[in-house]
Amino acid sequence: MAAPDFEQIVDAHYAPLYRFALSLARSEPAAADLTQQTFYLWASRGHQLRDAAKVKSWLFTTLYREFLGLHRRESRFPQVELDGETAELPAETVSIADSIDGAAAVAALQNIDEVYRAPLTLFYLEEFSYREIADVLGVPAGTVMSRLSRGKALLRKLLIQENDGARKIIPIDLPSAEGGSL
Amino acid sequence: MTNKEASFLLGACRPSGADATDPEFAQALAQAASDPALKTWMDGQRQFDSAIAARVQSITIPADLRSRILTGGRVSTPAPSTFARRVWAIAAMVTLFAGLGAWSLIQSRRASHEWEDQALAVLSQLVSGGAKFDATSPDVTKLQLWLGANGAPGQPPLPISIQHLASLGCKTITYHGHPISIICFQGQGGELVHLAMTARSSLQHPPPQGPPVYETRDGWNLATWSQGDMAMMLATRAPESQLHDLLGILLPF
User: Fold this and answer.
1) How many Cα atoms are found within 13 Å in the side-chain-facing hemisphere of A75?
2) What fold does the segment set A94-164 form as a domain?
3) B145 lies in a domain?
4) Which chain B residues touch A144 with a CB distance below 8 Å?
5) Using CB atoms, which residue from A43, A101, A148 is nearest to B76?
């Protein structure tokens, strides 16, 4: 079977790539630029990829790396406090999710720190399994699970705040980094 | 498996059901089928995830984005040039043979240092505050469990003496796609001691089995050795005697 040409690859992937880029960059022009840059890189380097089945993963990985190269200020990891107490099961928020509109859901997602936002967006785009998300982001699969769990908890919190009208969605302060380094 | 553990796993199941046959989730799904509380939670979680997924997947795409990509791609695709390829191939062959001798002399030593240098670079960032732990706990057993759960080396049995040191935290990095685990401890005299470990199979030139090799590099005092199928490195800014003291206790040589 012949390898897909450039136009076929664009048609298959540009929409989810743009949505992923928008969640990372949080600006439509920046997301469009990232998406275009990713396909530019594919056009100039994609012929080096021998396995056609990995085109999608290559595109998402490249877009993510481009974003990190442009925007990430420093390497930040979610610090897991292993001795912390947590509830047996996380809370349910079905009614909250059903009652908000699309823009509010996307806005809430975009207010979550990037380390959670990237795996959450890939998860909700449903293009990749958690193992594939780990490959795209370059982290262990268990870390993806942790970030999904923590990210969903943060998303619920933001949606409840938005739904209650208690206050506007504002950027979240992640757990303090104090003590997280030497 | 507790319900909390099951919910942690099930949280990574896509709401579309695309992961329903993934064996990783089989036990958690079976447990949800028989446990009403977990089933209620899972149903609610799936509805929540489906609602968010529908909204994320309906984000509007700029109308002209596709045409801009296609136009940019056409002018970006490298034009094939047989002549240029031949020139580059000849140049590459000349360079390859000219450098092969020198390369083979230094490669062995360099390769044996690469993973150590990578770990030391991260340690320097941790010490300076430029990087943070992935997980923190004063209990090294919990850190080992966390590392194992995240696909990183964490399970080589540590001697009793190092388990008695207060752990500070751990971090995972990758070396050519292979995970390296780093665990930081505070020694009894207040000095910081860092243990890095990775699979020997991931290294071209792993440390030798047997007594550790000591050296000083970039201000770090190091000891490297192999323990079973793991390559180990202990590093500290403290005097090298600290490593001798520790490894005299740690290793059954």
Assistant:
1) 17
2) Arc Repressor Mutant, subunit A (1.10.10)
3) yes
4) 12
5) A43
Nearest to B59 among A7, A19, A90 (CB): A19
> Could you tell me if B48 lies within 8 Å of chain A, comparing CB atoms?
yes
Which among B115, B235, B130 has a CA at the least distance from the CA of B179? B115
Of the candidates B39, B56, B73, which is a domain's last residue? B56
Q: How far apart are CA B55 and CA A103, in angstroms?
A: 8
Assess whether B153 and B220 both reside in one domain.
yes
pTM (whole model) above 0.90:
no
By the 8 A CB rule, do A10 and A39 touch? yes
As annotated, the residues of chain A forming the CATH 1.10.1740 domain(s) are 6-71
For residue A38, give every residue at least 6 positions away whose Cβ sits within 8 Å of its Cβ, in sequence order, or none: A17, A21, A59, A62, A63, A66
Over residues B85-139, the pLDDT tens digits come to 565 566 666 666 666 655 554 555 555 678 888 888 888 877 766 677 888 778 8
Residue B195, φ and ψ in degrees, nearest 5: -110, 125
| B52 and B116 fall within a common domain | no
DSSP secondary structure code for residue A12 in this structure: H
Q: Which fold has domain A6-71?
A: Rna Polymerase Sigma Factor; Chain: A (1.10.1740)
The residues in A 85-104 lying below 8 A from B, measured between CB atoms, are 86-90, 92-94, 96-98, 101-102
If asked whether residues B170 and B244 sit together in one domain, one would say yes
* Contact flag A126-B15 (C-beta cutoff 8 Å): yes
The residue range of the domain holding B43 is: 3-56
Predicted interface score ipTM higher than 0.85? no
Q: What 3-state class would DSSP assign to A80?
A: strand
